[in-house]
Amino acid sequence: MENPVISIVAPLYNEQEALPLLVARLNALMDASELRIEVVLVDDGSRDKTPLMMQQLALSDARYSCVFLSRNHGHQLALTAGLSEAVGSEAIMVIDGDLQDPPELLTELHAKMKEGYDVVYAVRKKRKEGFVKKSAYFLFYRLMKSISYIEIPLDSGDFSLISRRVVDILNKMPEESRYIRGMRSWIGFKQVGLEYERNERAAGEAKYDFGMLFKLAYNGIFNFSEFPIKFVSSIGFGAILLSLVYFVITLIKKITVGTVPEGFIALLFVIVLFSGIQLIALGLIGEYVLRIFFQSKNRPLYIIKQVIRGGKAN
Ligand code: UDP
Ligand code: MG
Question: Which ligand has the nearest atom to the CA of 75?
Answer without folding.
Answer: 1
